[in-house]
Design a protein that fits this description.
- The chain is an alpha/beta fold and about 280 residues long.
- It has one domain: NAD(P)-binding Rossmann-like Domain (Rossmann fold, 3-Layer(aba) Sandwich).
- It has ten helices and seven strands.
- It has a seven-stranded parallel β-sheet, with helices on both faces.
- Helix 2 packs across helix 9, helix 4 runs parallel beside helix 5 and helix 5 packs parallel to helix 7.
- The longest helix has 23 residues.
- It is globular, with a radius of gyration of 18 Å.
- Bound molecules: NADP nicotinamide-adenine-dinucleotide phosphate.
Length: about 280
């Protein structure tokens, strides 16, 4: 109880920019931060109504913020977005690089993916993170926080072939976190990647219903030992925790927030693995 009061006190009045926070995991992050009293710049690409809905929910939680349209694939848009944050907030304490990009457009196996699809994935992920951090760093307060959202099986395994362009870019983003962590350590700014597991109320819900049902029943069978998918609030909780004062010594890490899914062993039948 005392801990959470202290945590709220530390985070209250801070300023965050969360890319792609109109919907899905980004919205979960924005709302969790707002719950702690953080003011949030809600970035979106096209869905202004969803962005306004996130902002309304932020206000219901007693915090505030504004919406900012920007395509993270376009460096000039990122520059404008950060400059809007400077104009409206005057400072920044937390930068979360979460926006998805057109994932379904660049889903293609490694031997078939076109150079165009590959470059689109780079623009949405590794380039967006590079430019985002370079732009945000000047505005970030000392002891600020930078976080990137990743996906552990995509960045560390190779089994889901159509995820090739995204997965390899997520691996690049995780590596960039380590380099940025060293570069920004003198200012006490931490830089970490948080790997979400399969999350409900996200891009997953845009897949054909049969695919969604198959994925969810797979997790519920026990391939996620908590027997459920994650929620945007679960990921928001992991991010908010890394934004606390006590997390100031954790930097350059890739942290998995997946309810334990990545602990399961694909070589051994589930029967032998479940408690
Ligand atoms: N869903 C999962 O299970 C899962 C698992 C691991 C990691 N992740 C990662 O979590 C992040 C969020 O994914 P999600 O599933 O929450 O996606 P989502 O529900 O489809 O939401 C995507 C968000 O990104 C915004 N966006 C898309 N392209 C953009 C661009 N070019 N510039 C700015 N904003 C853009 C969208 O804005 P509009 O509303 O305007 O379209 C929306 O706010 C991604 O980095 C993804 O790789 C997801």
């Amino acid at each position: 109880m005392t801990e959470s009061v202290n945590e709220k006190k530390y985070l209250a009045g801070k300023f965050a920019l969360v890319t792609g926070s109109s919907r899905g995991i980004g919205r979960g992050i924005a709302l969790k931060l707002a719950e702690k009293g953080v003011k949030v710049a809600v970035n979106y690409l096209k869905d202004e109504a969803a962005a306004n809905d996130t902002l309304a929910k932020i206000k219901e939680l007693g915090s505030d913020g504004f919406i900012v349209q920007a395509d993270v694939c376009n460096p000039k848009d990122i520059e404008r977005m950060v400059s809007e944050v400077r104009d409206k907030f005057g400072k920044l304490d937390i930068f979360v690089s979460n926006a998805l990009g057109n994932l379904l457009g660049f889903m293609s196996p490694p031997l078939q993916v076109s150079l165009q699809q590959w470059e689109e994935a780079c623009r949405a992920q590794s380039s967006a993170f590079l430019v985002g951090v370079q732009q945000a760093a000047g505005l970030l307060s000392d002891k600020g926080r930078i976080l990137a959202i990743s996906y552990w099986p995509g960045s560390h395994a190779g089994g889901f072939l159509p995820y090739f362009a995204m997965g390899t870019n997520k691996a690049a983003v995780e590596a960039m976190c380590r380099y940025f962590a060293v570069a920004l350590a003198p200012r006490g700014i931490t830089v970490n990647a948080v790997c979400a597991g399969i999350t409900d109320d996200s891009i997953v819900n845009s897949l054909p219903k049969e695919a969604q049902d198959a994925m969810l029943s797979w997790l519920k069978e026990g391939w996620n030992p908590m027997k459920r998918p994650g929620t945007p609030a679960d990921i928001g909780g992991a991010i908010a925790t890394l934004c606390t004062e006590d997390a100031g010594w954790i930097t350059g890490q890739t942290i998995i927030a997946d309810g334990g899914a990545s602990l399961m062993n694909p070589e051994v039948p589930l029967f032998f693995q479940l408690p």
